[in-house]
Amino acid sequence: MLLIGLRLDPLDAVLITHEHTDHINGLARLAARLKVPVFISEATLASLPAKKKLPAVEYFRPGHSFQIGDVLVEPFTIPHDAVDPVGFRFTSAGVRIAQATDLGYITPNVKDMIRGCHALILESNHDLEMLRNGPYPWYVKQRVMSRDGHLSNSATADYLRDEFDAEARLLILAHLSEQNNHPQIARLEASSALEQRDATDTRLVVSSQTEPTEVFTF
Predict the structure, then answer these.
(1) pLDDT tens digits for range 172-196
(2) Among 21, 39, 125, 184, which has the highest number of CB atoms less than 10 A from its own CB?
(3) Structural domain boundaries enclosing 174
(4) Residue 159 lies in a domain
(5) Count of domains forming the chain
(6) Is the pTM higher than 0.90?
(7) In a domain, 62, yes or no
């Protein structure tokens, strides 16, 4: 946020999808600094390390919407090897945005929640050949490729080609592996799928782990 000139002070809340380290590192310090509530499921909070003391907590349950200011938040269950993992759909002023990363496959309920959105943040984690031939131990490779792991470029492309409703004006590929993927590979697979789907009005953006995207306005 600071890199794109946005202050942290106006934030109203922090929302947590699941307890894996790459999602909760620095959480306690951030929440204490901002003095804002952390929205989290009870099961996910119980799984956090004891040292992750949060100053203010608001619980949610997957499938039950809640409001933060003028934003309607709808958490939905996703298949991942965490205790209670969720994605989120946000609606405000007629604009709907969904975020679904860290999921092994796209379940019917996920398809329902990401349908009809103006913007979609969707996982494109790994290239299957790079993963199979890469440095990870075999048990980690099996985990990543499992139905509780992460979406491959191919799985994301299959969804875009066969089931994407082409309503989203913006599609952001997210959660790319540094070891087992390359932005250009992910972009090529997704763009080919969008072309086959005739989703010519959908802008494709590949996110980075090291720098922010531009700010998108709806």
Answers:
(1) 999 999 999 999 999 999 999 999 9
(2) 125
(3) 94-218
(4) yes
(5) 1
(6) yes
(7) no
